[in-house]
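Our consortium's second objective concerns turning raw sequence data into structural hypotheses that experimental partners can test. To show how far this objective has progressed, the report includes one record in full. It was chosen at random from the queue rather than selected for favorable results. The single chain below, 217 residues long, was entered without modification.
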Amino acid sequence: MIVDLNLKGRLVIIVGAGGEGLKKVNSLLTQDCQILVISDSIAPQIERLAKQGKIDFKKTRLDSSDFLNEYDPILVMATTNNKELNRKIIQAAKKKRCYSYASDDPEFSDFTHPSVINIHDTVQVAISTGGRSPAMARKLKMKAEKIFNEIIDMEDIYQIRLQKIARDSAKSTIPTVLQRKRFLYKVLNNTKIKQLLKDDNFPAAEKEVMRILGEWK
């Protein structure tokens, strides 16, 4: 089972700033969460992200899991090249009742980390082998990425973004869940809106949504 965890506004700690740590950082950049990387060294790409303000970085000696006592994360990922240390970090995270993951210890982790296809920061498709073969997950991702980029076009991406606007706006205007659902499907199937999105005219499509919402009974 793949679960899309809501990390918005929450603290995620990644321990280790090498290649594996960088992969985990990149997978979190679109999640609107606070990312803290803790390590005794730092890869250039992670340092660049820290300077850009996209993540926080703390340099500290990694010989125990005591540093976790300072924080209240929802998720901890251990990506050091020391399996024993990773295990200690995961054990400490479990005691804090937060989700935990070690890149070299999937059986002890709370979850496996799938390979994710990210399409315009709007659609994410996860490919997981349940920790059996990360290498095959990456290979399958490369195969599937080409297919999904062909079948999901910009009109689909615009429609998703428009649905988010429509859904948020309807919550304060349309009182029942059933009526809001009908409204969203009307937006989704509206011929004029479809054409506007096809023509890359997102502002006009959004205006049409507001018109429909204003006339909704």
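The partners drew two points from this record. The chain has a mean pLDDT of 93. The longest strand covers residues 34-39. Both points have been shared with the crystallography group to help prioritize constructs.
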